Hints:
There is one protein chain. The chain is of the alpha+beta class. It is 50% helix and 19% strand.
Amino acid sequence: MEFTLKNQDATSAILSVNIQEADYAALVEKQLKNFRQKANVPGFRPGMVPMGLIKKQYGTAVKAEEINKLLQTKIFEYIRENKIDMLGEPLPIEEQQANINMVDDKDFTFEFEIALAPKFDAVLDKNDALAYYKIQPTDEMVQGQVDAFAQRCGEYKQVESYENGDMLKGTLTEAVENGVVVREAVMMPSYMKNEDQKALFAGSKVNDVVTFNPFTAFDGNEAELASLLKVEKSEVAAHNGEFTFAISEITRFVASEVNQNVFDAAFGKDAVKSEEEFRAKIAEQFEARFEVESDYKLLMDVRDYLMNKVGKLEFNEAILRRIMDSNKAEGEVVSEEDFQKSLTELRWHLVKEQLAKKFEIKIDDNDVLNVAKGATRDQFAQYGMANVPEDLLENYAKEMLKQEKTREALINRAVDVKLIQGIKAAITLNEEKVSVEDFNKKVSENA
């Protein structure tokens, strides 16, 4: 096979591929032999069909298929080995290929249009200074996390007087002859739908008897009433009158005091030894989670900065349109708006690609796994679980990576993580502490 690349201009080239019979003959012969082994032709046993008949029936189609497969493989090998900065894929020149006679010809020339990537230099160094926003957690955010940890270390206690959220235990009796009686019934008035019925329990104490209407209290919900009254759902409507509830116990969940037990449960034994250290550690956690957002904002700012610095890039829009249209359903074309958006994204993709080469960024399985573990750690942290064992994080991360779309997103994220690290090391960062509110305003301004 012979390849000839001729530049049309700075943005496109014509790739000519000359294929001779010797390049594909053995491939065609092998495939025809496979056909012969499987062919089911009346009058011949399997595998005994004359090769001449096989060639007559399948020869041209097999020849075309093998040449096409060979072209696909060798063209991309040529492009890779010659380091041709191609955009998209080679497009066959239909007018030229329409004259090819696959039946009679033995040697062929195929021509393809290629869109070339523009030449530019994306440079970042210490002369480039950008703001880096360090998001500060509010006192309310830290206090909320302190309260959440204290709640998780809390316990249930018996109390004498009812408050909203407490759990009541007692005897529930229907106020009719031979009515329903439920001993050791358990109920939480705070879950009642009717506010007037809920208010009947306010301030009640152990040994008090409260008269109320469960059907009204729970808005006739069959599932809730059947569970409370210990009857079938179909029987609920027959018990829509008043009941008495003789309170025998009142149980309240009480959050723990902020003490060493809470510190140990949150961050491990003796990792924190005072409330001041505890709050500082929580603030650090918030800042670490916010760093992901700060880094993303920096990446978006670098995008705008470099796009302006690099300036307009020239593309062969005619070829790129054909490439994009070829990926649409038959008869559909890419709209002008979508095409321009794609060009913008292509510019940024090329800039990122060049930066990745300059920073010598390489991604392996461990990088992707670490990003997945980081995402998993953040998910646990949202529920206040800061001290999750490493093996559990890894198991969750590996499950995430089994999903193809998730894995692809995490690979892209791993590239971005290393790209951001390279950018932060290359440029001058002007650090600025900002509140969550001010940071969100800055993000929305650039959206």
